[in-house]
Amino acid sequence: MSDILLPAFIILIVLFTLLGSGVWVGISLLAVAAIAMEVFTTSQTGPLMASTIWGASNLWSLAALPLFIWMGDILFRSRLSDDMFEGLQPWMGNLPGKLLHINIIGCGIFAAVSGSSAATAATIGKISIPELKRRGYDEKMILGTLAGSATLGLLIPPSIILIVYGVATEQSIARLFVAGVGPGIMLVVMFMAYVAIWSFLNKHKMPETAESFSWKQRFHSIKNLGPVVLLIAGVIGSIYMGIASPTDAAAVGVFLSLCLTKLTGDLTKESFIDGILSATRTSCMIAFILAGAAFLTTAMGFTGIPASLASWIGQMGLSQYQLLGALTLFFIVMGCFLDGISVVVLTTAVILPMIETAGIDPLWFGIFIVIVVEMSQITPPVGFNLFVIQSLSGRNILVVAKAALPFFLILIGAVGAITVFPEIVTWLPNNMN
Amino acid sequence: MRAMLDKLYVIGGVLGALFLFGIFLIVLLQVGANLIDFISSALTGHAIGLTIPSYAEIAGFMLAGASFLSLPYALRHGTHIRVNLFIQRLGAKGQQLTDIWSFLIGTALTGWLAYYAWELVLESYEYGDLSTGLIAVPIWIPQVSLALGTTLMSVSMLDGFVSSLMQKDFFIKAENADLGVE
Amino acid sequence: KDVWNMPTPYPDGNFHTVNIKTFADDVRTATNGELDIKIHSAGSLVKHPEIKNAVRKGLVPIGEFFLSRLSNENPVFGIDSIPFLATNYADAERLWNASRPLIEKQLQKQRLKVLFSVPWPPQGLYTKNEVKSLEDLKGVKMRAYNALTERLARLSGAVPTQVEVPDIPQAFATGQVDAMITSPSTGANSKAWDFVSNFVDVQAWIPKNIVVVNQKAYDKLSDSAKSAIDAAAKAAQTRGWEASQAETAAKIKILQDNGMKVSTPTAELLNGLKKAGSEMTADWAKESGADGQEILATYNK
Ligand code: NA
Ligand code: NA
């Protein structure tokens, strides 16, 4: 054990030093991985770095990410985003929490199209952060709801991480997807309940809006919502018509956004160029961090640290609940430093046998792991939602992480809930066909 | 020199954007083909079977192009994120020092990566490695984007290093300025 | 003491990985722990597309991959994926013996030494609707993932459709594809009954995984370690071929137990498919030149 703890400790110190001294996140990850490889293994660091980064960056499954980011950039530069908020105002203005729920509902819907939480945060946040700020909502809540609910991209199908888990453990991806639906809806409800309670207790922090809206106003507002509803229906519809895979659907989204903004007269040569260049910059930033994370994953694979830590837990002879508790803690700690998919890739081979020995359903465990990985998206220093939201809002990741803390705690609550009531996960897949 | 380097970064950014547009186009073509098939099977009961060969693999290659070639362009715009909580609290002198340090590490690391990326390109070329899909693409061609992009990135990192030594501001503007969020 | 990291593409439960674990144990025992092969399954260390080149470059000394992935590089690598050339294990073994020298020669050019190769179960046809004749395949959207599967789909009157592995369940559910060709293993492991209801055991071809070692890394081993690894490889190959046959029966049973309609192909369907197969064999022989014709001559002897 001690032969693993010292390297782990050194690697953490290096990571904190680099990040804390202002070195870019992508570069820091690459540097830590390179140092770990050089110091703790006998492998050829340079060639491995080049080949890992190449392998991790020409992936079809990632191609949807820049397209969705671009879609957000197109909408952000158009009247459509403002129209959508105006249109939703009469519908949500009476709810405690008002438009703050938009981040949650928006991410919930978008998660049904996108498999990644970074794409979800980037697309929804690009539109919602400025709109909500302009309407005087509390910044902490704007950032927190966005960071928290964008993690739904992982749980509500389609989901990249459920595919990775399904392939690594030979579970049915179709069943895993179905299993994610129940907990996904549960989390949406939990997030909304929190926002409602918070706004009830913090009335002075909520913006003044008309107290109540008539049904006439509501129906009048539908014309504002029309284009966005059309967009969502088009993207989801293209998948269910069988003419687009979930990745293809991102291109459909871009196409429809371009058409709609053309119709509203928002699409000019300048806005088009601005939009695609901005999307290129943002997606290149995320891709570079992903590349760094991929190399850190490989480096960790060569050092064997995560697998050793996992098997150390396995040797403690824990009961079922103790094991799940220990694993939750383990994943939260690992999730602070590695991205979620890496944690799954590096540890499933060790953890799955423990799970099966303990009599835990691997299908249920897949959902458990995804919720825990969702937490890792919003824990510093390495959390992808934090990175995306820092780049959108200009707020430091620690500020964003603090804003997201309540949602982190809700996710822990969700883990507790599915542990006590596993039917939340297993009922739908068991009643399939 | 300044103008020339900036031009270089912008060219990289524009190439990256063109690749992003390329991904959009090739995927949209395939979806369009699927739509024609969908309509054709609804009308005649038979799909035609239109495919853009290897579109997924080629989209992946273009993704690499979009991601790597625009690296320095994004750096110049301050898009690459860093944890600035602590450095914000330092004075101007301290910030200059952390910039010098960050750019130094960035130059070394991306330069190192660029060296091995070119080696990867060369090896793929020498062995004639091909992609596995319907269209056999020589792998070295898309790999050039990794090598070229990281090379440009290390040039821009060096540029930033020199700029911060000379106490000039390297970054064009804060990325979020156009969001109306501070 | 030497530790060799070995990346493999498939998960721990897969029979290929199980076989390789035994291989590693054999080597460890025979060398008294001098050579310790550490398996990193499911692409956790190196992803499948990069494994061959990682071994070639010596980034890892040893690795496993799906042989006909390389068929674009040289048609010889694709010989085990020509439809209806070798459709039972005895033929597949003869084909492997006939092609092994040339495959070894080609891989040697990349500094890769072949240790052993283990087949997947024979490829079968998964369809949404029942298929009794070639006519039933007409206009059916069939998954294609490389030049060979695309050709086969076209020749049998189906419509080739590109679908990436993770999108398969959704593609079936939404009608993007109606049919695919893969092994009973892959079908059972991905719980194919969740999205298709028919399995026709057409036994189209028997593709293989191959385990290669970097020549330089191998040369550096002591003589005793070399013979230990050779012996373990030989045993792994025999064991793997037997495991593959057991796997076929077991996985077809799983398909059946989960309510899939498992059938043997009608003579009409099989003849139609075989016609497509012989056309593809002829094309392959032309494309692969002298090497290919040499293999086919040995195989047909
Ligand atoms: Na999703
Ligand atoms: Na984290």
TrEMBL record, chain A:
Membrane topology reported for the UniProt record: Multi-pass membrane protein
Keywords of this entry: Cell inner membrane, Cell membrane, Membrane, Transmembrane, Transmembrane helix, Transport
Name of the protein described by the UniProt record: TRAP transporter large permease protein
Domain TRAP C4-dicarboxylate transport system permease DctM subunit: 12-424
Transmembrane segment boundaries: 6-36, 48-71, 100-121, 142-167, 173-201, 222-243, 286-309, 329-351, 363-384, 404-428
Function: Part of the tripartite ATP-independent periplasmic (TRAP) transport system.
Species for this entry: Terasakiella brassicae
Cited Pfam families: DctM
Similarity section: Belongs to the TRAP transporter large permease family.
Record-level Gene Ontology MF annotations: transmembrane transporter activity
Keyword Membrane included in the entry's annotation: yes
Listed GO CC annotations: plasma membrane
Subunit structure: The complex comprises the extracytoplasmic solute receptor protein and the two transmembrane proteins.
Subcellular location: Cell inner membrane
UniProtKB/TrEMBL annotation, chain B:
Annotated ranges, domain Tripartite ATP-independent periplasmic transporters DctQ component: 52-163
InterPro entries (alphabetical): DctQ, TRAP_DctQ
Keywords for this protein: Cell inner membrane, Cell membrane, Membrane, Transmembrane, Transmembrane helix, Transport
Annotated TM spans: 9-32, 52-75, 96-118, 138-158
Primary localisation category: membrane
Keyword Transmembrane helix: yes
GO MF annotation terms: transmembrane transporter activity
Highest taxon of source: Bacteria
Membrane topology, as annotated: Multi-pass membrane protein
One GO term of the biological process aspect: C4-dicarboxylate transport
Entry GO terms, CC: plasma membrane
UniProt-annotated location(s): Cell inner membrane
Cross-referenced Pfam families: DctQ
Subunit structure: The complex comprises the extracytoplasmic solute receptor protein and the two transmembrane proteins.
Function noted in UniProt: Part of the tripartite ATP-independent periplasmic (TRAP) transport system.
Family: Belongs to the TRAP transporter small permease family.
Name this polypeptide is given: TRAP transporter small permease protein
Source organism of the structure: Terasakiella brassicae
Lineage, broadest ranks: Bacteria, Pseudomonadati, Pseudomonadota, Alphaproteobacteria, Rhodospirillales
